[in-house]
Specification:
2 copies of one chain form a homodimer. Chain A has 10 helices and 10 strands. Chain A has helices at 5-21, 38-54, 69-81, 100-106, 118-125, 134-145, 165-174, 189-193, 238-241, 256-278, and strands spanning 28-34, 57-63, 87-90, 154-158, 178-182, 198-201, 219-222, 226-228, 231-233, 247-248. Chain A has a 5-stranded parallel sheet. In chain A, α1 (5-21) packs parallel to α10 (256-278).
Chain lengths: 279, 279
């Protein structure tokens, strides 16, 4: 059975639109972009489209490629202090003369809707209320939509990025799953993947996960994206794994649409977290 | 073969003593204790003994059991600002009217030698230079002392406490191990433990890990402590597992002595981190 992220995106964004319309304040999503990167343009446009649909104000700050780190930090500081700005994203990647880690930690953690700051990462580890990285959160939402049980299941994650793999470990641990994390230094990857009740691959390597690596009736989540001759491929050999899996996400149309959806929800949550903090 | 924490403690504390003696500043370990708890008294005394041996000043702040959270916070704030105080520990557990999470996050992360704050936890996840929880760090040091290879090994951790299990995941992931974390909601625990090259149990349940659950030649690390009729027991059925394991820690004398050792090293690192930050 297909886990349909496109369909869930539509459903969830409609709900978010309704919830947002009930607020007495207009929320603002601020995207700070440095330089001209083709992929970044596409991603920023997706965010704008989401914001327009849901009813957020979209504040797009475009800076030149040679902007100094200090100037970028001053812009972030201004948005941190601006009460009208609900959530802030600095579009990655940044030019090499700018320290991405420093930038991510400069965003006030109450507005850090990418959930990449050290504080928000620590809060996730400690299972505290926090803004969680959008792709991992989208995966969890997709599983919940299809009533897939997580507690006590063996979740095997392939890939240990700060953006996806590592938050997934903590997110699923908080859901009481037993969790294994594999990566480029893992030997005999199949020994691990074959034991997974829920297998999540987030590497970006076409056909990394083949049929023989998947347990019968496993749930297979494909976060990888490889572009080849203008076509998108995931990490999973979809056509062959399809019949063995109980549920599987397609690429595109699986996890992808969930990321921008959860970004929208994080804007609302950032607003609510700050309202709670002010009480 | 026995992993001798007692011996390594002696060796490492002598090195630390020498390094400390070279500094032109006397470092201060500040322990804040609330109320009278028998176990806490023992732990605080161990810290004092270590500090005296190494040559740290030991600042012991004892507060009454009914102290208010606000007052405790004001004491922490004072120590945060006191340039003479190098590292701060608030001895756990705290009386139930005080929020432990709030207290742990009130300590300046540069002085948080327990490594329990959200920021330091996030920094560990992101593999940044940071103060790391002492028991997990001690385990890593013990493995390194015996030249046990970690990269690409399967490390299985039983127990997901904020103090031990969760930091272990990130510490071993940063060492390029493949990591699995199990806990009370894990089903068929043996299915996981039997696959471990390095098995770490941190639960506090006598005889949880029996011979049939351990792979031949596995490295077995026992962090559990159960007190029965004035005798200490670990999680591992030591007598029977001993012949199957390539290396094993005893209880007591294995991981235990490493915790206070790494606390000492964290005081030195806190000093160095702040010096670096001031440059």
């Amino acid at each position: 059975m297909i886990l349909d992220g496109k369909k869930l995106k539509e459903k969830k964004l409609n709900i978010l639109k309704e919830e947002t319309s009930k607020l007495d304040k207009k929320l603002t999503l601020c995207v700070i972009q440095v330089g001209e990167d083709t992929a970044s343009e596409i991603y920023v446009n997706q965010k704008k489209k989401m914001a327009d649909f849901v009813g957020f104000a979209f504040k797009h700050i475009k800076l030149k490629n040679d902007v100094s780190e200090d100037y970028l930090l001053s812009i972030i500081d201004k948005e941190n202090k601006d009460d009208k700005t609900t959530g802030i994203i600095v579009q990655m990647p940044l030019p090499s003369h700018i320290n991405e880690t420093k930038i991510q930690n400069a965003i006030d953690y109450h507005k850090d809707i990418d959930g990449l700051s050290d504080i928000n990462t620590g809060r996730l580890v400690h299972n505290r209320k926090t803004l969680i990285s959008c792709t991992p959160k989208g995966i969890l939402e997709l599983l919940k939509e299809y009533n897939i049980k997580i507690e006590s299941k063996h979740v095997v994650i392939v890939g240990r990025s700060n953006l996806v793999g590592k938050p997934l470990v903590n997110l699923f641990l908080n859901e009481n799953a037993t969790v294994t994390i594999c990566h480029s230094k893992t030997k005999n990857l199949k020994d691990y993947t074959i034991t997974a009740d829920i297998l999540i691959s987030a590497v970006g390597k076409k056909n990394l996960i083949t049929k023989d690596m998947v347990k019968q009736n496993a749930v297979v989540i494909d976060v990888g994206i490889t572009r080849e001759n203008n076509k998108l491929y995931g990490d999973v050999d979809f056509d062959n794994v399809f019949n063995k899996a109980s549920y599987i996400t397609p690429v595109p149309g699986g996890v992808g649409p969930m990321t921008v959806t959860e970004l929208g929800y994080n804007v609302l949550e950032a607003y609510q977290l700050r309202s709670d903090a002010n009480e």
